[in-house]
Amino acid sequence: MKNKSILKVISSLTLVSMMCYTLPVMAYTKEETIYSKLDASGKQYQTIVSSHIKNTDAQTTLKDISDLLNIENTNGYETFEKDGNTLLWNANGNDIYYKGETKKELPVSCNIKYELDGKQISKDEIAGRSGKVKMTLEYTNNEKHIVNINGKNETMYTPFLVIAGTIINNETNKNITISSGKVIDDGSKTIAVGMAFPGMQESLGIKEKNFELPTKIEITMDTTDFELDTIASFVTPKIIESKDDLAKLDKLDKVYEKVVTLQSASEEILNGAKTLKEGTEEYSSKKQEFNTAMKQVSTGMTSANKSYQELDNGINTLNKSSKTLGNGAKQISDGTSQVSSNLEVIATKLSEAEQGSKKLEQGELQIAEGLKQISSGIKLEDSSESVKNLKTIIKQNQDTIDTLTKTNKALNAQLTNENASIIKPQIEANTKMIALLTANKTAQEETLKTLSKTSEQISKLEGGIKQLQTGISSLQVGNKDLTTGITQLKEGTITLAGKSKELTSGAKSLYKGTQDLSKGTSELSQGSSQIKQGLNTLDTSTAKLTVADDALTTGAITIKDGANTLYEGIFKFNEEGIKPICNLINGNVKNITKRVKKLGELSLEYNNYTMLEEGEEGSVQFILLTDAIKGESKQKQNGEDVILNENSIKDNKKEEK
Questions:
Q1: What is the DSSP string of 221-274?
Q2: 25, pLDDT greater than 60
């Protein structure tokens, strides 16, 4: 009687597990429940498949295929004709329930190990022993697939959820624990229920140090007379309801597209910054060469002005005293020659300065082009769109969390001592799913913060670039004026050099003859005054031009340093900001999303264990029952334990119906 009661409890536990963890699905044509007997080490030795064909259209005959042996009707009197693997049922409008045997390997196998006081012991030796016992139920997923994830072949498994439970007598056992599960103690006995996800860790590609999905269940206890009742394991591949749920994951592809655009724009900005950096370096180098030439022009102009002061003094002396005409004429001749030479040097340097100024204009155009490339590469709306899409996904995650939380509240409201063993496992499963979704939502919120910050930085960068473009435009206008001034100064210097040559010729004539002394010295004095005034003007203008050019040279160096700083900042921004974000979203997040989607597809594809007629829909679930372990005095009684027989399957089918 006691064992029959245990059978009912285990059967109830199995049915509860099926109710709690089978997601709502479409009305399948064919449903399979596989009952498999395992010995106490987990080795499969007997498997019976119970099939239910739903005759939704009340057909007179139903065509089915099956590779089962010893097929028989378990809930009616409908007959069938068998031709190979083809079954033709005389349904008469009824659903068909039948069972058969198979030797096929299970998609999820179980290996059970026993330890007594820390040492491994066989299933045959542990019965009736005392001490610290540890049982390890390790589940292996045998449904391996090679799939393509982001262009790379990866190993994934059909997703299976395993729920295992057993009943332990409190009279001879205490301190009972179970990993990844729950123990329920009613005083006389303890019900231990745990969960496992074989193959899921590898399928998701998640490292165990970050998050571990259990593939085994460990039960420990202190025992004075070890025995073990049947362990019932419920196995289902249904982790997704329908193809519509898979379609929801496609919305993330839009986010990934925007991330690619963001990464491309960032590279364009970096290239533009590099062009700007190289252009400003060239501009600064040429500007310094031009500045050196301008300083030489200024020095020559000052020297010419000083030399002409001496010349002018000589002319005044000549004009005042004819007695010293010879000496004065010689000084004039020497001075005008020196002035003429200086003016020719000045004209040459001004030509070099003019060429340097034109090169500056080219450098400014290159800088403007670099800024244009940077500006065209910045697309703030792409970053904003990414932020918007990611917020939508976070909200969807939160909606799912809220739904599961409400479900738990509703289950808690229904919780009583009588149904605790039914409802609590569902609450705990929902809680684990909430934790997984919350962790995913937290990672998405961190990504959202980084994207929002990136959007602000891009906005500031656009403003800075516009200011720099305005400054460069002003610099172009100033440099054009500078080029015009240099050209005018060169032309004036050439004209002045010509006049200086004429003055030299006159001085030589004066030195040779003094007959027209009075007239000549008067003309010379007038010409000298004009030259002196012109030289003073040129000297003053050259000094001002040199000061302005010094400022421009300093500005060019500042622009070069700023462009280098801008390039380094954009490079760092790209390497430490944009690339990590893109790598994270297009790497880990995208990779996991692709894997989850593929797991959903594999879940939907696994819809039968034996055979399924093309065009039909199916569902499948597994119930694994291990042999009990009893002492020698209880071996006879052990014969009454849970077995797979025709009556138990019929009873279950009647309950389903």
A1: EEESS--B-PPEEEEE------HHHHHHGGGHHHHHHHHHHHHHHHHHHHHHHH
A2: no
Closest to 168 (Cα-Cα) out of 218, 115, 119, 231: 231
Whole-number Å distance between alpha carbons of 643 and 640? 8
- Spatial CA neighbour of 10 closest among 647, 637, 628: 628
Given a cut of 80, is residue 92 above it in pLDDT?
yes
Strands 119-121 and 108-116: antiparallel
Taking a C-beta distance cutoff of 8 angstroms, is the pair 241, 23 a contact? yes
What is the Cα–Cα distance from 537 to 655, expressed in whole angstroms?
Answer: 115
Q: Bigger pLDDT: 89 or 492?
A: 89
Say what the pLDDT of residue 292 is.
Answer: 85
Nearest CA-CA partner of 373 in 197, 505, 563: 563
> What pLDDT, on a 0 to 100 scale, did the predictor assign at position 625?
96
Q: Is the dihedral of CA 331, 337, 338, 340 positive or negative?
A: positive
Dihedral sign for Cα 17, 19, 23, 25, please. Answer: positive
Between CA 187 and CA 170 the distance in angstroms is 7
Asked whether the predicted pLDDT for residue 607 surpasses 80, the reply is yes
More confident residue, 21 or 372: 372
> Cβ(267)–Cβ(574) under 8 Å?
yes
Determine the Cα–Cα distance for residues 161 and 200; give it in Å rounded to an integer: 9
The DSSP call for residue 634 is G
Look up residue 177 and give its amino acid: T
CB 629 within 8 A of CB 122: no
- Residue with token string 């609590």: 424
Among the listed residues 459, 479, 254, the one whose alpha carbon sits nearest the alpha carbon of residue 365: 479
* Highest-pLDDT range among 5-9, 210-214, 282-286: 210-214
* Res 475: pLDDT: 66
Residue type, 410: A
Q: How far apart are alpha carbons 619 and 605 in whole angstroms?
A: 10
Bridge partners (DSSP) listed for residue 86: 65, 83
- Give the 3-state DSSP-derived string for 354-386, with helices as H, strands as E and coil as C: HHHHHHHHHHHHHHHHHHHHHHHHCCHHHHHHH
Strand partners, 185: 190
**What is the bridge-based pairing of β-strands 216-223 and 152-157?**
unpaired
Query: Considering the chain, what percentage of its residues have pLDDT values greater than 70?
Result: 71
Predicted pLDDT of residue 96: 94
Contacts of 442 (CB under 8 A, 6+ apart): none
pLDDT at 257 over 90: no
Per-residue pLDDT, averaged over 242-253, amounts to: 51
Bridge partners of 327, per DSSP, are: none
Alpha-carbon gap, residue 69 to 51, rounded angstroms: 13
**Counting every residue, how long is the chain?**
657
230-239, 280-289, 523-532 — most confident range? 230-239
Amino acid symbol at 226? F
As a whole number, the mean pLDDT across the chain is 77
Cβ(82)–Cβ(60) below 8 Å: no
Determine the 3-state secondary structure of 421 from DSSP.
helix
Count of alpha carbons within 13 Å of 216, Cβ hemisphere only? 12
- Rounded Cα distance, 219 and 275, in Å: 67
- Provide the pLDDT for residue 33: 95
Backbone CA torsion sign across 333, 339, 342, 347 = negative
How many Å apart are CA 353 and CA 432, to the nearest integer?
A: 77
